[in-house]
Amino acid sequence: MKARPFLAVLLALVLAVFGLGLGGWWLVWQRSALRLQRLPLVAPRAARFVPRDAPFSLHLFSDGEQPLDYARAVAPPRRRRQAAEAVGRLRDGAFAAAGLDYGTELSSWLASPVGLALFEADAGSAGATRRGGWLLVLGSRDNGGARRFLQRFWQTRSLAGTDLQISTYRGLGLISGRGALLGRTPMPLATALVDDDLVLIASGRGVLEQALDVSQIDELNQAGQPGFQEGLRRLGTGAALVQAAPDALERWLGLPLPAPADQRPGGLLLALRPDGRSLRLSGLLELPSQTTLPEVGADGDLGRALRGALHRPSASLALVQDPAAIAAIPLLQPLLTRMAGAAGPLPSLVVGTDGGPLLAAASGDRWLLGTGADRPAVAAVEASLAADGLIAAPLEVEGHSLLVWTRLRAGAGRRDNRAEQLQAPLLGWRWQRGDQAWWGASLGQLESLDGPGPKGVARPQDPLEALGAPGAALQWALDGPLARDLLASWQPWQRLSALAGGPLSDPVAGLALALTGESGVLAVDARLDFGDS
To answer: Can you tell which superkingdom this protein's organism belongs to (predicted)?
Structure first.
């Protein structure tokens, strides 16, 4: 009988230790920067102050230090300082663009949420209801931090000769004037403190009053929109959230859009989160009416077989379910052309007429396409190329029965005035192997399909596997050099590099993208990988 109290006490001690350990682990996890990988998406508090028709908005679910801590945690030991400095430069440059110094004004009190909204003024002036400018929403760790910031904020700018105007609007104190950091150009600014822990900074009094107006009516602000709430539910997790209206896709995100209004997409909602040394992006883009992307059907096994047939790495690798159908969608046609990575009559004809799936691999100016044996039909290809002046001929190369295409042309005249012989440069070839057909630009590419590579060289990892999107209509992966070239030409990346005060592309090791058609939307999944350099 005496053993029972002893066992009860022992069990209580074990449960207490377990509870303390679990509670300690939870506290450590809540404070850890690694939790940025699994943050559930909820409606940002700052979204209450963003008008529903704002062209562009960005919400961050972290303070100013967690991204730096995360970069240190996942970077290689010898690169931790450089990784944190790169993220820090980007953070400091972003706040400096709004006239704020992060180190002296924000670091001691800033907390989630952090929100930014950009506006464009309505055309005309008399009936204009939307003002151009920007709105910045900053959360505070405590009530005193936000209040002390506003006091120092305007005190510092008053030293630069700012005339302050203090007023009341919707029960809140508003301070406005032309403020600037010392040594910087003054700009119109207005501030308000909401609930003692949320600071609103706007590019003028009118923008700030508009933000306070829409915060009172759910139907007028971003957080109250059913589509916004549904998008958060579908995206699931994220450390940052971006929403762009149709007009902002081309102007601020640099996305090429078709000219006809009925072919242009709707709004875009993006969630970004870190994943190890990668940055994952998940998005939902409203598709134009009557636009449907092809799905993976019975030919899914052929797509996997085509990917498995490659035994050499490629700088660019794309898998398209139905190229002919996607080529007819103006919104995606430029992307398909770039993914195919080939120019010339033969690859253009194959991509434009293939019913899919199609595998496109490229390294430098050498392209390689894989299709089904009967798609497109070789007879139709021959006829189209013959009309373009190309000549088809059989050719045996190391046991491979090929069909090659050439174009006759006269050589340059010789110095002895005798004409050169006709030349017939190779423009492409086709090789059928079982239920697969392969099309290429160079005969040397046959080595990529002839079984294992050189002895001791491991089979290259499929870069599309990391996306985890087997049902995507389009999948595309780029190696480091091509990914850096693509990002360097992308307008938002150029702006981020300008904010950081230097290039951000050096550590980029790869980029992968998948597009999947869902009910009324285009689901976007992307992965940006960072390496050791």
So the answer is: Bacteria
- pLDDT tens digits for range 389-399: 888 888 888 88
**pLDDT, tens only, 204-225:** 899 999 999 999 999 999 999 9
Pairing relation of β-strands 521-530 and 278-286? antiparallel
Q: What 3-state DSSP class applies to 213?
A: helix
Residue 355 buriedness (CB in 10 A; 0-12 / 13-18 / 19+): middle
DSSP H/E element including 200: strand 198-202
- Of 234-248, 332-346, 490-504, least confident by mean pLDDT is 332-346
Would you call 391 exposed, middle or buried from its count of C-beta atoms within 10 A (0-12, 13-18, 19+)? middle
**What amino acid occupies position 73?**
A
**3-state class of 139 per DSSP?**
strand
d(CA 366, CA 386): 23
Chain segment 452-475, per-residue pLDDT in tens: 555 555 556 778 888 888 889 999
- Answer whether 358's CB lies under 8 Å from 371's CB: yes
pLDDT confidence bin for 369, thresholds 50/70/90? very high
Within 8 A by CB and 6+ apart from 282, the residues are 235, 236, 238, 270, 271, 523, 524, 525, 526
- Strand segments (E) across 213-330: 240-244, 268-275, 278-286, 316-320
Tokens of 392: 């088809």
Structure letter (DSSP) for residue 37: G
Backbone angles phi, psi at 86, to 5 degrees: -65, -45
Query: Can you give the pTM of this predicted structure?
Result: 0.85
Count Cβ atoms below 10 Å from residue 269 Cβ, excluding itself. 24
Mean pLDDT, range 492-496, rounded to an integer = 93
Residues 86, 71 contacting (CB under 8 angstroms) = yes
Residue 502 CA to residue 54 CA, distance in Å, equals 30
Query: Which helix or strand (DSSP H or E) is residue 360 part of?
Result: strand 358-363
Which one-letter amino acid corresponds to residue 377?
A
Length of the chain as a residue count: 533
What contacts 373, CB < 8 A, 6 or more positions away? 432, 434, 435, 436, 437
96 Cα distance to chain centroid: 24
